[in-house]
Design brief:
Helices cover 0% and strands 57% of the residues. With 179 residues, it is mainly β.
Length: 179
């Protein structure tokens, strides 16, 4: 059944108001926790979903699921490891976003050792391949998001206390992306 143009629920006090029985489920539960990070769509009626899969705050696996409306199948692809969460209690990992023009291109944030990276990855030959580092810093480089127009990538840059969102100093950084 199509949900196009149908109101699935209304946000109300005490909950989102969406009945999970009426919304099509395309990413099934498994034993590990998952956090959806971004959703992209192509002309082929596919949904590209980026998410983190994890057990605890020490590391997560970044993955992409590609759902085909035609076949009703979800193909899962491993991207890379995220590194530890920047906010331990809620297990907030750095994040990923799709390029606004091409969901085969991903921008992601990950931590390796003492450094945070914003990186570009691309899907080719049935796998995600690292393309380049966009920025490297000892400060948090998290929550990348692609601007709809102008070919710009933005992310949150700064410092957070790992156990509290009450102590932070951040800004939104912007960089023009070469295609």
């Amino acid at each position: 059944s199509s949900t196009k143009g149908k109101v699935l629920g209304k946000a109300e006090a005490g909950g989102m108001g969406v009945d999970n029985k009426t919304v099509p489920k395309i990413l099934e539960r498994n034993q590990r926790r998952r956090r959806i990070l971004d959703v992209g769509k192509t002309e082929k009626e596919q949904a590209w979903i980026s998410f983190a899969e994890f057990d605890d705050e020490t590391n997560a696996e970044y993955k992409v699921g590609v759902y085909s409306k035609k076949t009703k199948n979800m193909n899962l692809y491993d991207v890379t490891m995220s590194g530890e969460a920047f906010y331990a209690r809620s297990r907030y990992f750095g994040g990923m976003c799709f390029d606004t023009e091409n969901p085969r291109t991903l921008y992601l944030s990950r931590k390796e050792g003492d450094f945070w990276y914003i990186e570009k990855w691309h899907y080719e030959k049935k796998q995600y391949v690292f393309k380049r580092v966009i920025k490297k810093s000892r400060k948090n480089l998290i929550r990348p998001f692609a601007a709809e127009y102008g070919g710009k990538l933005q992310w949150i840059e700064g410092t957070y206390a790992r156990d509290s969102f009450k102590t932070f100093e951040t800004m939104i950084a912007t960089k023009k992306i070469k295609k």
